[in-house]
Structures are given as structure tokens and as C-alpha cells.
Amino acid sequence: MMDWNDVIKFANNGSPAPDKRVEKSDEEWRSLLTPEQFRIARKKGTEVAFTGAYCSAHDPGKYNCICCGSPLFDASIKFESKSGWPSFTEPVKNNAIKYEKDVSFGMIRVEVMCNVCDAHLGHVFPDGPPPTGLRFCINSASIQLEQ
């Protein structure tokens, strides 16, 4: 089970290797995604808080990357963080997520991306519930629920 120390280690020293890689040009991604999905997942955008389709969803299933379809989070570990974005306590496996230090907007955060295709998902914070203490704060536009 991951914890904040693991997140910091991955952000500083590199993430675990993914099972596979998917790489496409911006033009190819644009043809597969809506403009909003492209802006968020490929250009590191953020959706407005409390507007995402999965913010309050509680349906069972797996949340997959909107770009490449790779499994990222299980719905069973989704929780209500009241942050305005879907929140999860851990990924489906350690190498599903890529972690990078993000110093944009005068803050120090850890950005999370799909480790297979580098799609921007959101950020992870150390203020989640037990047992991991993690809050993966994810844009709905970057994920798709598979039931």
C-alpha cells in the first residue's frame, strides 16, 4: 500500500515503469478527444470545481484514462473529499500513475499523470483518509468509468 513517502520518492526519483507506452501526436489526440478533454488531459488544464461528471458519482467499476483506456482507479476506493473533484485513495497498481513535482502557480504539488500515455489527471495530496492518507484529486475529463 502506498503512502506519502512513496509519492515523494516517485516525484523526486522517477515513477515505476509502466506496463506499456502509448504515444500520439497532438493532432492524433485532438481527433480522439473532445476539446475540453484535450485541454485538460493533454495540456494540463483543470476543470472548474464541482462541475465534473464524476465528482459525486458512486457507481461501481474502474476509472480508466480517457486517452489510452488504461485502468487507473477502482470506484471502491473513491471518497467524498468535498474538494470539487473526484478523489481516490490509491491507484489500481503502483505503476498506473506517473508522479512529477509541480511548482506552477507559486505552489509545490505533485502532479499525477497516466503512466502509459502521460495524460494529465490532477494532483495527489497527503490529506486523504486511512489507510493510505492520500487524496488523488482527479479531473473528471481525464477519466472514464467502465462498469
Characterize the structure shown.
- The chain is α+β, with helices and mostly antiparallel strands and 147 residues long.
- The chain has one domain: Peptide methionine sulfoxide reductase (Metal Binding Protein, Guanine Nucleotide Exchange Factor, Chain A).
- It is 17% helix and 26% strand.
- It has 3 helices and 9 strands; from the N terminus they run αααβββββββββ.
- The protein has helices spanning 4-13, 26-32, 35-42; strands spanning 62-65, 71-74, 78-79, 87-88, 97-102, 109-114, 120-125, 135-138, 143-146.
- The strands form 2 sheets. The protein has a 6-stranded antiparallel β-sheet with strand order 3-4-8-7-6-5.
- Strand 3 (78-79) and strand 4 form a beta hairpin.
- The longest helix has 10 residues, at 4-13.
- The radius of gyration is 14 Å and the shape is globular.
- 37% of the residues are buried.
- The mean pLDDT is 95.
